[in-house]
Structures are given as C-alpha cells and as structure tokens.
Amino acid sequence: MAIWLDTAADDFETAFTALLSMKREVSKDVGDTVDAIIADIRANGDTALAAYSARFDDVDFSDPATPMKVGTEEIEAAIAAVDPKVIDALRLAEERIRKHHARQLPPDDSYEDEIGVTLGHRWTAVEAVGLYVPGGTASYPSSVLMNAVPAKVAGVERVVMVVPAMKGKINPAVLAAAKIAGITEIYRIGGAQAVAALAYGTETIAPVSKIVGPGNAYVAAAKRAVFGTVGIDMIAGPSEVLVIADGDNNPDWIAADLLAQAEHDTAAQSILITTDKALGEAVEKAVERQLKTLPRGEIAGASWRDYGAIISVLDLDTALSLANRVAPEHLELAVDDPEALIPKVRNAGAIFAGHYTPEAIGDYVGGSNHVLPTARSARFSSGLGVLDFMKRTSILRLGPEQLNRLAPSAIELAECEGLGAHARSVAIRLNRKE
Amino acid sequence: MAIWLDTAADDFETAFTALLSMKREVSKDVGDTVDAIIADIRANGDTALAAYSARFDDVDFSDPATPMKVGTEEIEAAIAAVDPKVIDALRLAEERIRKHHARQLPPDDSYEDEIGVTLGHRWTAVEAVGLYVPGGTASYPSSVLMNAVPAKVAGVERVVMVVPAMKGKINPAVLAAAKIAGITEIYRIGGAQAVAALAYGTETIAPVSKIVGPGNAYVAAAKRAVFGTVGIDMIAGPSEVLVIADGDNNPDWIAADLLAQAEHDTAAQSILITTDKALGEAVEKAVERQLKTLPRGEIAGASWRDYGAIISVLDLDTALSLANRVAPEHLELAVDDPEALIPKVRNAGAIFAGHYTPEAIGDYVGGSNHVLPTARSARFSSGLGVLDFMKRTSILRLGPEQLNRLAPSAIELAECEGLGAHARSVAIRLNRKE
C-alpha cells in the first residue's frame, strides 16, 4: 500500500509537505572514524592503505594474485570472462554516451567590447580525476561508463578508478566497463581510505584533482572532508522517480517503472501523479501483482510501502507544479504530447518523455547520463556531464586607452573599500610605461 | 623579504613543493558550535535568529530603527548617503558585469540521433538564491555586484541578501550596490544563523535553494553543513596572485600588483615568476618602498614577509609550467605578447593579460567576475558565473521503434546488474500499448 494523496482533499497541503520533508536516509555519524582514516593515509600512505584493505576487504596486496594495482592481464581476463552479449551492450552504451556528451563540450569565448577591452574565457579539462566504484552488489558497470566517459570526452588525461575488492575479487563486468571506457589505472581499494589516497596521494598513487562516484556513508563523509583539497561531485542519496500520467496509460507499464526505481534500495522513492484516479488504482493493483514475481521484490516492496505515493490531481498543470516542488531525480511524462509539458518543468534531473521511454533506458543505453541529482537537489544542481570535468579561466585585457577610461571608477571603488594598494596598482599605470 | 627560489638551484623542486603545500589558513574547528546554531534556528526560527543577532551583532530587531528586514526607506537613504561618484562607479561596474555575463547564458539542445532517439537538455534558473555579505571591513559593495548580477542574468527570481549589522548599522555602499543589482529582499543577519535561516527558512524568511558569498570560519562551516539541503558556491580561502613577468617591465607596477593582493589579508599570497633576476630584485626593493606609504601596510607587509615569493626562471615556458602547478586564483601575464602564453595556461581562475591590466581592474569594472577559485582549487573549479545559478535537465524520448532497437542491450545490462524490475520496465513495452 502506497500513500494516497488527493489535491481535492482539505488536508492536501499538509500531507504533501509531509511527503516532501520525509527523511529517507539516516546519515550515520561516521565523521570521527573517517577523519582518523584520512589522517592515517596522509601520514602512512601505502602501508596504511594495505592495512585498511586487509581489515575491511580481507585482501592481501603482497599476494601476487591481488596486488593493489590491477594488472593488464587481470583486466583482459575479466573481458574474456564476461558474456559477450554484455560486452556488446557495454560497447553500445559507451558509444551512445560518448556521442551524446561530445555535444556538451563548451565553446571558448573572446571578444572586444565597445571600448576595446578584450574579454573572454577558455575551458580546460581537469588533469586527473578519481572515480570511486562501490564494491558488492552496487558495483555497476553502467555507472563506470556514466562517470568515466564524460571525463574522457572532457579531455581528462588521467582517470583513476578505485574499487574495493572483497577477498581480492572485482566484478569482471566492472573491469570490462573500465577497459571499454579507456581507464587503464585501477586500484583494488575502497572506503574512506581510497578517497584519502586519491586526494592526498601515496607512494603508489599520485593524487588527483577531483573525485566522483557514489559510495556508502564512509565514502560520502570522506568526500565531504576532502572537498576543497580536491573537487567532488554531488553526494548521492537514494534514487527516486516521479511519473506524471494521464488516463491513457497501461497500468502495468507504469507499475513496472515505479518498481524499477523501488528495487534499487528500500530508501528509494516512487511517486505517481495522475489526472485519472482510476488509473492510479489500477497501477496500485499492478504493483502488488508484479511485486510477487520480482527477484528484488522484498527491497522494492519495502520502498513502495514506506515511501511510494500516488497523487490524484485535476489537471496536468497541477501535476507539473507539484513535480517542480518535489524536484525529482527522474521525471517520466507518460502522456501523448510530452513536448507540451517539457517547457513547464522547472526542477528535475532528467525527463523521460512519452510512453516508450522507461527510465531504465536512460540508465543504460539512452546516451544521457544516469548520475543525477537526488533528494530534491535538482532545485539547484544538474546531472553529471562534461562540464563537471572542465573549468573556465576568464581572460581580461586592457590597453592604455581602456585603462585610462576605466581607471577613475576602479580607483573610486577601491578607495571606498579602503583598499589603497588596489587603487595604486591602477593609478600607477596612468603614467605610461614608455 | 620574500622567499627567493631559483629553478637553477639544486634544491628548487623541494623548495617549490614546500611553497605549494604552505598552509596559509588555520581552519578553526567550529563545527560543534555551528551545528548547535543550525539546530536552534531550525527549531526556533525567528526567535533564535533575534537572540543570536542580539548576542553577536548587538542589534535589537524590536527597535523600529533596526528591524530584521531592511526597509525600502533605509535603502533609499543609503543611496543618498553614498558619494555620487561611488554610485556612478557601481552603476558602471554593474552594467559591465551584466553585459559580460549575459554571454555566459548557455544554449538548450535538442536533436534526433541516427536511430531517431530525441536527446537534449534545457537550462533553467535556480528559483531562489541567498547571498551572504560579510559585515565589518570585508563588507565590499563590489562583491555584492559580483555575486548578485550573474544570478539576475541567469533569471533567478528571488535573490535574498543577508548582512550582519553590528549595532544595527549596514555599510551604505553595500545597500546601494544591492539596490543597483536589483536586490529588494535584505535581512540584517549574519553568521551561521543567517546561513541556517536561508537554508531552512524561518517565519519571516522563506528558504532558498542555493547560498553564495564569502564569510568567516563560522559561515564557511555552516555552508558546508547545509550543503545538500541547498547548493553552495565554493568555500573561499585567502586570495592570491601570481605575476609572470619578463625583463621588460616597470618594477613599480609589478610591486603595486603584488601589494594589491597582499593588502587583502595577512594570509594572502603574492608570487612573482620572472625570467629576469634583476627585475625580481628591483621589484623586491619597490615593494619595500611602497609598503611604507600604504594605508594597509601592516597587513600587506605581513603577507609579503610570510608568503610572498620571487621565482627566477630561465624562460617563459618554465614560468607557465610552474604557474600551472600553483593554479593561482589570479594570473597576471606582464609580457608584451600575452596571447602567445594564454593557450599554455592550464590552471588559473583568471588571466590578466599585458602590462595595462592590473588585477584590481578585474576586481571592479573589467566586467569579468572577481569571485574566483583560491587555494589551488583552479585545478578543478571555475570562477563564479551564470552557470552557478542554473541547472540542466536532460531530456530523452524514444518511440516504439527506438525502444525495440535499444531494448535488448538495456535488458542485458539490467540483468547483468541484477536489476530485474529495470529489465521488466523495458521488456513490458515491447508488447505495444495499442
């Protein structure tokens, strides 16, 4: 049973606000542990890294079968061990992601304004990026592609992957995805210790400038702690989908989409907003039916029971206005004319338009990125893209005439701010160098 | 006396690495205090806000002369109280910043790929942004423009300014700059309590989605703590300049530029890299001379003594390679042909090109933004711009043919990742709805 809300009900606003402020994630307080691990890695480098890996991952780097750095042979062996159909699918995904992201490469700018000042900017790639890949069941080859390909497209020279390897083992599909994405530097490490090693470097691992990729509470806390020393991407929270559906929909399809989100995590959230209450009821029945035959039915069922919601509205405009308040990671527009609704979407990580675009296509082979802002952060942030691996240097150039023209105002403001040396650095140039 | 380094010296690499890793900022551990303040604001709203403001800023919001929200009359009175020359200079600055930043508005994209999938993205503005303005001597009207104008250009509907007001007083030039930038919602609050109020809202203040602007250790810690609930800009550190100069320079000009940076803060850093050791020596003498007549000579002198550096190199290529390792906030290219060097700059917040572009011009009226990445973060981040106030929503649309084409790969990958509901949400649509 999901939560039912109806905009026609008197208590709707209260109920909807409660839905918005629902806390789905319990953030473990691991700050002290993480700080200690980071300090240890900074002080003791590889030695500390090996000790933590032995303790948390039960892996011995002195064993030639499981060295810290994953060798070429191990990567080749992984490719050979993965079903060729999966390899083909990964290749197709990589190609589609690469082609799509190539369009995000930003243009440089340079122009002269009306008084002859040259202004502009140049974009350059971050030189070295670390990609954290979780171990265990959340070790997704698709996420390797989604994080690595935009970095490669941006022109990042060094993309370093870290992945914790319980008893030394790494999911071969993850290694295959890394190889397909062009990653050659891979370390068998994880947790806060891997984040610290990437940020500060060790004898074996040269430091990077930015760290991306999802992880558990320790990884998230470590990323927050090293932020500033290196750049980080967003802190990922549990996934969510919001489906807007009119009456003309197959309830089984919508149910399948809600469950595709719910199966990620018991803290995932699936919301349906519909103009047709009968469809909502049919979807709810279909969800219960499909749950019975779902391999991850227990997880999906818990998510749906605790956080699933069906909201009945009078019209699509109301649906969109509620969706904008939710600011969902994934927004499905299950209507015949989604293009009419798209301009009204203000806050969403990604839109999946029409009846034939289940969100799962975007997870794998659509070409767009599946790393998207969760927990309402689409109000202020974007999905991962090429810009996350580049930075802009602004450029300003004045000649003597332009300096003469702008100097009085600059000096006025510098003096108003009490910054005499600022004023002098401008004034001193009014006596020409020549 | 600044530090002298010479690339020809045997110990250069050691000395340069030490310069790079010099810690200029002592980060006060204020986390617990800040957490308590945030919790109090969330629980008690305006009441807590008034109490902290009484305690830290000695201001009484119940006094009709100093209400929490700054009234229109107070803003008008501020404009009247500021020197008209300053007002004119602020207007010129605002116009130049606005025109320049308008070029940063990003284009939307929509295209059909070779198999008929529609992909694209739309950019939308963040709906509400909070701008933190420090009180006291660091209360700079120019920074109000640099933070607010890009937000306005992006299309942010609600820009809220907060500024701590010791005994109720706000720098009139700051209010004038706010008015010129089009800010109408201003609160007389500061510190961690103001950040918490912006992030979570109170009875008087509606919450925002993103908070920008510099502040002290408490403000920085509060921004770090609310990150995720709202977006934040970078955590600003002490300012720095790196000047690359060939022999053909007036030492007094270079000295003035080094001191303009040094006067900001005893933790600021000014570095000169020159191909002409004699110029370096002349600049050092000029710095000592100019320090004597500088209003903020004590601050600038301490910064220069503790962190100033002059590096002698054999050629400009070496200078650039060192500059890229420093990744300075401000990079001045004091050479005759700066355009030849610009393509070689990899890591810098902003470039000031040629002999007539002192960095201070960029602080005020150049048009480019003066909020730039400090503490080597130009390796992975950019100066403030319009993109910081916008977010990208990706769009994907498949029809039945495209779904049929991509479904097998998506299903293959979903099954490889153990996500059966993902696979089903794709497979179920292969039986057409009609």
UniProtKB/TrEMBL annotation, chains A, B:
It comes from the Bacteria. Catalyzes the sequential NAD-dependent oxidations of L-histidinol to L-histidinaldehyde and then to L-histidine. One of its GO terms (molecular function) is zinc ion binding. It is an enzyme of class 1 (oxidoreductase). It catalyses: L-histidinol + 2 NAD(+) + H2O = L-histidine + 2 NADH + 3 H(+). NAD(+) binds at Y132, Q193, N216. Pathway: Amino-acid biosynthesis; L-histidine biosynthesis; L-histidine from 5-phospho-alpha-D-ribose 1-diphosphate: step 9/9. The active site is at E329 (proton acceptor), H330 (proton acceptor). Substrate binds at S239, Q261, H264, H330, D363, E417, H422. GO terms for biological process: L-histidine biosynthetic process. Its EC number is 1.1.1.23. The keyword Amino-acid biosynthesis applies. This is Histidinol dehydrogenase. It holds the Pfam family Histidinol_dh. HAMAP family: HisD (MF_01024). Zn(2+) binds at Q261, H264, D363, H422. Its cofactor is Zn(2+). Binds 1 zinc ion per subunit. Keywords: Amino-acid biosynthesis, Histidine biosynthesis, Metal-binding, NAD, Oxidoreductase, Zinc. The keyword Chloroplast does not apply. GO terms for cellular component: cytosol. Belongs to the histidinol dehydrogenase family.
